[in-house]
Amino acid sequence: MLETLNNRDELGAWLTQHGFEGQAVEIGALNGANARQWISTWGQGTLTLIDPWAPQDPTVYKERQDWTDFEACLKECMMLEDEFPKRIRLLRSLSMNAVWQFQDKSLDVCYVDGNHAYEAAMADFCAWWPKIKSGGILGAHDYWENREPPAWGEVKVVADHFSAGMRIPFRHTPKCGSVWFQKP
Question: For the whole model, what pTM was predicted?
Fold first, then answer.
């Protein structure tokens, strides 16, 4: 099924096409641009946007943060929530503080695009994987390895290690830099 998902912009339409009408989570929503694309092409379902919308400890969040107006990003997401009141929910939180609010096997999709450092991204993969129902997908953005500021990213190593450890393949869509794991 994943072979038909070529770009993260297609996620909403892909969910509709494959009968997913439940819950999705996006970790690292920033200004809601991805969420807007998905929700506007997803026939049913609810999407929770999880983001602290605040600067993080630079020893933990190693990417550049000074270019972002977090309050403006939050306001954009709030407007999206107002536009889709029964389908979008904002959760101003770090991923690891929010994960307990979701039952195991309750999500159609979890898309990870928050902290791209190895420890944080691996924690997201491991904590959110049990929340995904059979047939659902875990996706992540920025499949690359770069340990130099300002574009710190270790998602490639995380996805490779997660795949090997779980013995589950993934699909990489280079056009958008995403990886997709489908839960058996």
Answer: 0.95
